[in-house]
Specification:
Blueprint (H helix, E strand, L loop, with lengths): L8 E4 H4 L1 E4 L13 E5 L2 E6 L10 E3 L7 E2 L6 E2 L3 E5 L7 H10 L16 H5 L2 E4 L2 H40 L7 E4 H4 L7 E3 L16 E4 L16 E2 L1 H6 L10 E4 L7 E3 L8 E2 L3 E4 L8 H10 L1 H10 L10 H5 L2 E4 L2 H40 L4
Parallel strand pairs: 3-7, 12-16
Antiparallel strand pairs: 1-9, 2-8, 3-4, 5-6, 5-8, 10-18, 11-17, 12-13, 14-15, 14-17
C-alpha cells in the first residue's frame, strides 16, 4: 500500500521489544510448584518460583529457534530461550505474539551445528506499528482465527488417535478360532515375496534420474502412511535389471534403516516402481492376511511390539532387519473380521481426510488474515 493508515508508524522490532536471556535451571534444582518452566520448544517442567514478574513471551534461542510461546502466568524461561520485555502503553502483548510468529524467526539460524537465534538480527527487522487500540483489534481477530484453526487440528489429532484405538478394541484379545502366525507365514508363498531393495553396486546414486520409473524410499513411508516425498527415478533399462524389486499395490513397506519401524501400505494406483534397500517390502497372501491389518498389527499389537523390542535390544528404532520382521508373531483372525476392520478404517480415514482439508482451509484463512493485518489492510 502507498500510504500508511492513520496513526501507523514504521519501526524496528528492537524499538518496541527487548529479548532478554533466560536463566539456567537444572532439573535437580527445581522444586515442585505451579510455575511453568519453559524451553525453546515449550513448557518442560514446573517450579515453585517464577523468573519473570509480568506478562511476557518466550522466544526459542537454541534448539527450536524462533518458536514463540505465550504463557498465561509468570514463568521461568531457561537459558535456551529469550523472554520479552515491552512497554504496555505502546505494545499489546497478543499483537506482539502474532507479529513475532509471522516474521520467520525460525529461519534465522546462526549455527549449522547448534541452531541459534541472534537477538540483534531480530531487532533489525522492521514492522508497521498500529495504534494500541488497533493492535488489540488485530490481536482479537487473529486469536479467534487461530482458535478456530486449532480446534480443527484437534479433530485431526483425535481421529489419528482413534485409528489405534479401533485396532486395540477389535484385536487386543485373541478370540477362539484365531490362529497365531509369523509375518513369513502370511507372506505370499512365492520366492521374493519378502525383499529389500538393491544393494551396493546394483543401484548407484549416479544412476538415479529426474524421470522414469519411481524409486520408493523412507520418505514415502515415514508418516506411517504412503505419500510421495522426494522423487527419485531410474531408467526403463535399469528397471529391467532390477524388476525383482518391483513394488505392487497392497504391498506392505517397513523402514529398516534411518527412521526404522515405520510402515505403510502401497496404494492401488501406484505406477511401476521399485523400493530402496532401506525398506522391507512384503507381498501378502491376502487369503490369510489383509495389508492394512498387518500394518496396524506392526504398529499397535502388544505381542508384536514386545517381540520387536526384544529383538532390537529394547529400541524398535535400531537394529531392525528382514529376518526379525519375518519372525514377528501376530494374531490372524478370520478374514471376515479383518475386512470389517478395514471397512471401519476406511470410514475413519475418510473423516480424517475431511478434517485435514477443513484445517488446511482454516489455516490458510488465518495466514491470509495475518498477512493483511500486518499490512494495515484488515
Amino acid at each position: 500500500m502507498s500510504e500508511l493508515p492513520k496513526g501507523w508508524t514504521t519501526v524496528a522490532l528492537g524499538d518496541i521489544v527487548e529479548l532478554r536471556y533466560g536463566k539456567s535451571l537444572p532439573k535437580k534444582l527445581r522444586t515442585p510448584g505451579g510455575v511453568p518452566v519453559y524451553g525453546s520448544a515449550g513448557a518442560v517442567d514446573h517450579h515453585e518460583e517464577a523468573f519473570t514478574s509480568g506478562p511476557a513471551l518466550v522466544v526459542g534461542r537454541k534448539g527450536s529457534i524462533g518458536q514463540i510461546h505465550a504463557p498465561d502466568r509468570p514463568f521461568w524461561p531457561i537459558d535456551t530461550t529469550y523472554f520479552t520485555k515491552h512497554d504496555d502503553s505502546r505494545v499489546n502483548l497478543r499483537w506482539l505474539y502474532h507479529r513475532l510468529r509471522s516474521v520467520g524467526l525460525e529461519s534465522m539460524n546462526k549455527s549449522a551445528a547448534v541452531p541459534g537465534l541472534n537477538r540483534e538480527d531480530v531487532y533489525r527487522i522492521t514492522t508497521l506499528l498500529p495504534p494500541l487500540a488497533e493492535q488489540r483489534r488485530i490481536a482479537a481477530i487473529l486469536d479467534r482465527a487461530a482458535d478456530v484453526a486449532g480446534k480443527a487440528l484437534s479433530v485431526v489429532d483425535l481421529l489419528d488417535a482413534t485409528e489405534a484405538s479401533l485396532y486395540r478394541s477389535m484385536f487386543q484379545q485373541i478370540e477362539a478360532g484365531w490362529t497365531t502366525k509369523t509375518v513369513q507365514d502370511v507372506a505370499l508363498p512365492e520366492k521374493n515375496s519378502m525383499r529389500t531393495g538393491p544393494f551396493g553396486s546394483q543401484l548407484l546414486k549416479e544412476e538415479l534420474t529426474d524421470s522414469g520409473i519411481p524409486v520408493i524410499g523412507i520418505d514415502n513411508v515415514v508418516r506411517n502412511e504412503f505419500g510421495w516425498g522426494e522423487r527419485r527415478f531410474i531408467t526403463q533399462e535399469k528397471y529391467e535389471q532390477l524388476s525383482r524389486y518391483t513394488v505392487h499395490p497392497g504391498d506392505v513397506l517397513i523402514t529398516i534403516m534411518g527412521t526404522n519401524g515405520r510402515v505403510a501400505v502401497v496404494p492401488d494406483d501406484i505406477p511401476t516402481a521399485i523400493n530402496t534397500k532401506h525398506l522391507c517390502c512384503i507381498t501378502l497372501d491376502q487369503s490369510q492376511c489383509l495389508p492394512e491389518f498387518l500394518r496396524s498389527t506392526f504398529l499397535w499389537n502388544p505381542a508384536a511390539q514386545r517381540y520387536l523390542r526384544s529383538k532390537t535390544k529394547g529400541a524398535i528404532m535400531g537394529g531392525l532387519n528382514m529376518g526379525i520382521i519375518k519372525g514377528m508373531p501376530m494374531p490372524v483372525p478370520p478374514l471376515s473380521i479383518q475386512k470389517e476392520y478395514v471397512e471401519r478404517l476406511v470410514e475413519l480415514r475418510t473423516a480424517r481426510s475431511t478434517a485435514r482439508s477443513r484445517f488446511s482451509t482454516l489455516n490458510d484463512l488465518r495466514e491470509s488474515l495475518q498477512s493483511r493485518a500486518f499490512r494495515g489492510e484488515l
